[in-house]
Each structure stands twice: as structure tokens, then as C-alpha cells.
Amino acid sequence: MTAYGCALFETAIGDFGIVWGERGIAGVQLPESTAAATRARMLRRFAGAVEVQPAPEIERAIIAIRALLRGEPSDLSGVELDLEGLSAFQRSVYDVTRTIAPGRTLSYGEIAARVGTPRDAREVGKALGENPFPIVVPCHRVVAADGRMHGFSGSGGVKTKLRLLQIEGYEPIPGPSLFD
Q: Measured over all CA atoms, what is the biggest interatomic distance in the chain, rounded to whole angstroms?
């Protein structure tokens, strides 16, 4: 069994959790209603994780996440992730998703096309719904083909997705509701 370290950290939108092991970040926990709830969910996902002082590379990732959530330019593309246990398809979806610039979006279908499976938009949605690294793998930047917001499994659902995009400077195109 892999030994994991973990930590909670404050951001502009609430307390996040982060879990790491020898191969990099194993998970990021979006804020729940309280820090205790965030901690509890993180520890359910990573049983046996121990709260410790983050190593320098993890601290750099935390600093970058905080900056991004304050609306500051921040590049998370170099953050090392522990991809153990993920399928080749998930890895390819996460790789493409990590290329989406802050404040920009791609559709599920566009990601499917970029990973070489243009008819698998639903599978892309499933992979992003299982994303263990939200923010670092910015699944909030993925929208329906018509620009609608849906499919965000984090606390607060699509409202949190839109809030994250707005922090990054996203400006929705006027028209029908952004929500399903």
C-alpha cells in the first residue's frame, strides 16, 4: 500500500485538500462546506493518508493553486501527478485538459477529437467526472458543445464550475442559459 501525505490549505474559495505520494500528487479535494468536511472527504478517498508538512514541490503546487484562485496568472501544467491506476484513455483526456488555458474552454467532443476518438464525448465526460486532480487537471474548463455548463461533480456543481471560470476571466457568450 502506498503511503500518502496530505494537507489542507486555504484558498479564495475555501479550504482545499491535497494528497501526495512518491510519484506526485495523488488527489486534490475541492472545498466542502467546512474544513472538517473537506478533510473527512479527502481521508475517505485516501484512507491512511497522514497530515504532514508538504514537501517543497507540493508547496509550490499549493502556491500556484492559491494564485489561480485569486485570479492571478498561474501555470499548473508542470505539477507532477501520480497517474498510477488510471487508464490510458483517462491519461490522454487529462493531458489534453491540462492544455486548456485559464479562462478558456473546450467541449467534451473537442477533447475526444484531440485524443483520437472523436465519437467518445460521453467517455470524455466520464473520465473528467472521475478526475482525481480538479484544478490541476482543469475539468471545470470543459463544456458542452453548445457552451452549456454541466457535468461538474465538485461541491456546488455547475455553479462552482462557472465561479472557477469567472475567477479565471471567462466571459460566457450571451444567449440561452449556461446551465442544463
A: 50
